[in-house]
Write a structure and sequence with these properties.
With about 850 residues, the chain is an alpha+beta fold. It contains 27 helices and 31 strands. An eight-stranded mixed sheet has the order 6-5-9-3-2-12-15-14, with no helix packed on it. The longest helix has 22 residues, at about 535-555. The mean pLDDT is about 100. Bound molecules: arginine and zinc ion (ZN). Zinc ion binds near residues 283, 287, 306 and 309. One of its GO terms (biological process) is proteolysis. GO terms for molecular function: alanyl aminopeptidase activity; metallopeptidase activity; zinc ion binding. Keywords: Aminopeptidase, Hydrolase, Metal-binding, Metalloprotease, Protease, Zinc.
């Protein structure tokens, strides 16, 4: 059944307050609710309340027993035309809840995940984000720690009460109970509120909480300074949970995290892990204003909170670390995850207009492209106008459930701009292409930009969008003759002129990646790589050179491009540049990105040929840089104690990039030394990866497993690395063997993804001509779906690019998809995904 944005109707009642009592028991938890409803003008009964997998024990209205009509989706009951109190008692089975949605048990710990529509698995309720109410929660049980939203409101032997004064939708409800230990900190807000901060973990993990706590404090200070937003409760709790479908969840005052997104220590976490944890802590904290205080009217508006909050966490990371490095890594991620979505059968607008299962729309398009849209808006109106509009948003909409129209209106009101054309970014699916034409005559440079968007199922008749095109012009000597400007491309084709120039300038296009588009332009990349002042465009020049060299190798077997090798060598040797940036410069486009490029130019990608070309390029780079590898490696060793900051991380990134190249020349000798002497996970894991690649990984893998067998998060790395680094012929078999390992537990989403997700990330292994990986993936999706539909449906995206490949592969993938689709009782989540992908 499909739900449409256009069918939105407000709920007929106010929910004045909610009282919940939980009597915890693994298989028979009782949830007693007392909810006061008041009809809005014109409301007419009966009342429908959502409810799924609930055993109704009793129901009363104003103290009298009632007998609602119950279906698998909820209940319908006749109600008075005046305010009334609804009381219900239901029984639920947290231990049997393997879907990890609603109230469930994770390693003996009670926890909840309600977004988007999980609260209906806890009790009967109008489970929609525009119904906001004040919750009081009593938790009864023998568990040592019992948490819910808001402020503590009393506790005694076997019970604790919580009261959340801020009205909220049910998706922000949370409860946690278990044997937990807190690391406690303190924050005083700008207006003087003392806030107790806790990071709760299971016993044994206390040593991995300090970083998260610090990140939280930094986030709180940053949101005050940059957005003027203060925290609004006396306590802020974060809990680490081992079994969690996503990264984390912003429940009011009680953020629940996948343990992988919060637990950190130098010995067990890489620099990349630290950075991700810092960003997710910030993201969930920032939701307190962009999501919780101002929430979404309906789930079609998901990008209202997610796009904005991703944008805010990216700003935070740019401020805490290196802004250019953050921008480049975000673009890499956007191209890896969002572009394939936008250009394949799952394409949907940033604000979708229909869905079957909302959990399938927590996508890179809603999150990451949603954040790009905010970034474009900011670039178009300018920083000051952005601040003014956002302040107006908070003033005008605090306490409300809002829409994208509300968001754009504050920008129109604050700036006087008409944003009706800009709004197409929210309604049109697909990645626009921008082509560039240039002319030069009489000292005037003419730049013509042409935009186009391919029609898709959701956007059959695309219209021109507003594309902020940041650019600069460079002189032949490398000087900047026109500094960064933002051109506003609004027409399908539009020209811009720059006069008074002595010579034909060199265009530095799409600086900072100012719009999520594909640029079709034969730039002078060697020149830009050597001279561009914009760090993004300079990096992009290296990337583009690498890409065209690789594509030439794949198509014609040619050797890597000499211009690229020389340009990149100069950058890598340039000690004046940030080591993190130099490491990024050395990165090659992913094999999947190369496959997409081949497909777009009308070729059929051969995954093995792509793999071979990338390996050959690595080998050539190593030879080309052979005189420098050791020196740069040595010069970027960090002495002194480990710090997870950008400076040290950059050095380790460059040193590890050197090690990876060195391994191609020394057969793993240096990697073995680094492995044996590593004092942190960044060094240990990088060395292990090099050893596996050099076919020298056997002992180190065994040693690693022996060292870390007690640490689930580190063992996830051990599982995934073996798959990622396997030879293409062997990737599926490696994954299959690992699924038979005694520590493989497919019910744990992190472990499931560490093997099956890694297999899908191994481009040449997943798309091996045998088709074995497709079948293995289908087997596991079929097996997981009855237990955990959300994680299964998400994993189905591994097939979204299937139309890129040759007819034989397509046939094998179609067979895998059809086999999944034919499974009796397949979940709504997975059915929707398979249907959309298969229809391509
Ligand atoms: N709102 C959460 C976040 O972005 C994501 C939760 C999504 N969970 C889900 N089951 N759909 O931080
Ligand atoms: Zn979020």
């Amino acid at each position: 059944q499909t739900i449409y944005l256009k069918d939105y109707e407000p709920f007929g009642w106010e929910v004045e307050d909610v009282h919940l009592t939980f009597r915890l028991a693994p298989n028979t938890t009782r949830v007693i609710s007392r909810i006061r409803f008041a009809p809005k003008p014109g409301a007419r009964g009966p009342l429908f309340l959502h409810g799924e997998a609930l055993k109704l024990i009793s129901a009363r209205i104003d103290g009298s027993d009632v007998t609602p009509e119950v279906t698998p989706q909820g209940l319908t009951v006749a109600v008075p035309g005046a305010p009334f109190t609804w009381e219900a008692e239901v029984e639920i089975d947290p231990e049997g809840n393997t879907a990890l949605e609603g109230l469930y048990l994770s390693n003996g710990m009670y926890c909840t995940q309600c977004e988007a529509e999980g609260f209906r698995k806890i009790t009967y309720y109008p489970d929609r984000p525009d119904v906001m109410s004040v919750f009081t929660v009593r938790v009864e049980g023998n568990e040592l720690v019992k948490l819910s939203n808001g402020n503590p409101a009393g506790s005694g032997a076997g019970w604790a009460e919580w009261h959340d004064p801020w009205p909220k939708p049910a998706y922000l409800f949370a409860l946690v109970a278990g044997d937990l230990r807190a690391t406690t900190g303190q924050f005083t807000t700008a207006s003087g509120r003392d806030v107790e901060l806790n990071v709760w973990v299971r016993p044994g993990d206390e040593g991995k909480t300090a970083f998260a706590l610090e990140a939280l404090i930094k986030s709180m200070a940053w949101d005050e300074k940059v957005y003027g937003r203060e925290y609004d409760l006396d306590v802020f709790n974060i809990v680490a949970v081992d079994d969690f479908n996503m990264g984390a969840m912003e429940n009011k005052g009680l953020n629940i995290f996948n343990s992988s997104a919060v637990l950190a220590s130098p010995e067990t976490s890489t620099d990349a892990n630290f950075e991700r944890i810092e960003a997710i802590i910030a993201h969930e904290y920032f939701h307190n204003w962009t999501g919780n205080r101002i929430t979404c009217r309906d789930w079609f508006q998901l990008c209202l909170k997610e796009g904005l909050t991703v944008f805010r966490d990216a700003q935070f990371t740019s401020d805490m670390r290196s802004a250019p490095v953050k921008r480049i890594t975000d673009v890499i991620d956007l191209r890896a995850r969002q572009f394939p979505e936008d250009q394949g059968p799952l394409a949907h607008p940033v604000r979708p207009e229909s869905f079957q299962e909302i959990n399938n729309f927590y996508t890179a398009t809603v999150y990451e492209k949603g954040a790009e849209v905010i970034g474009m808006l900011k670039r178009l109106v300018g920083d000051q106008a952005y601040d003014k509009a956002v302040s107006l948003y908070f003033d005008r909409h605090d306490g409300q459930a809002c829409t994208i129209e509300d968001w754009l209106t504050v920008f129109e009101d604050a700036t006087g701009r008409d944003l009706s054309q800009f709004k197409r970014w929210y309604s049109q699916a697909g990645t626009p292409r921008v082509t560039v034409e240039e002319g030069f005559a009489d000292g005037t440079y003419t730049l013509t930009l042409v935009q186009s968007l391919a029609p898709s199922a959701t956007t059959p008749d695309p219209q021109p969008q507003v594309i902020p095109f940041a650019m600069g012009l460079l002189g032949r000597d490398g000087s900047e003759v026109v500094g960064t400007q933002v051109l506003e491309l609004t027409e399908a084709r539009q020209s811009f002129t720059f006069g008074g120039l002595a010579e034909q300038p060199v265009l530095s296009p799409l600086r900072g990646f100012s719009a999520p588009v594909i640029l079709d332009y034969a730039a002078d990349n060697a020149f830009l790589l050597a001279h561009d002042t914009d760090p993004f465009t300079r990096w992009e020049a290296a990337r583009t050179l690498a890409k065209s060299s690789l594509l030439t190798t794949i198509r014609h077997g040619a050797a890597p491009d000499q211009g690229y090798l020389e340009g990149i060598a100069a950058v890598v040797r340039d000690a004046a540049l940030d080591p993190a940036y130099r490491a990024l410069m050395l990165g090659l486009p992913s094999q999947s990105e190369l496959a997409a490029a081949l497909h777009h130019s009308g070729d059929i990608p051969d995954p093995q040929a792509i793999y071979d070309a990338v390996k050959a390029m690595g080998r050539t780079l190593a030879d080309h840089l052979s005189d420098d590898l050791r020196d740069i490696y040595t010069a970027h060793q960090v002495d002194g104690p480990y710090a997870p900051d950008a400076e040290q991380a950059g050095k380790r990134a460059l040193a590890n990039a050197m090690l990876s190249l060195l391994t191609k020349l020394d057969d793993g000798a240096q990697a073995q030394i680094q492995y044996d002497n590593a004092t942190n996970m960044t060094e240990q894991l990088a060395a292990l990866a090099c050893l596996i690649r050099a076919d020298k990984g056997e002992d180190a893998l065994a040693d690693f497993a022996a060292q870390w067998s007690g640490d689930r998060l580190v063992m996830d790395k051990w599982f995934s690395l073996q798959v990622l680094e396997a030879k293409p012929d062997n990737a599926a078999a490696t994954a299959e063997d690992l699924t038979e390992h005694p520590d493989f537990n497919y019910k744990n989403p992190n472990r499931f993804r560490s093997v099956l997700g890694a297999l899908a990330m191994h481009h040449a292994g997943f798309h091996h001509e045998s088709g074995y990986a497709y079948g293995l993936m289908a087997d596991w999706l079929i097996r997981l779906d009855p237990l955990n539909p959300q994680t299964t449906a998400r994993m189905c995206t591994v097939f979204q690019t299937w139309k890129r490949y040759d007819p034989v592969r397509q046939e094998m993938i179609a067979a895998a998809l059809d086999r999944i689709a034919a499974e009796p009782g397949l979940s709504r989540d997975t059915t929707e995904m398979i249907t959309r992908i298969r229809q391509a």
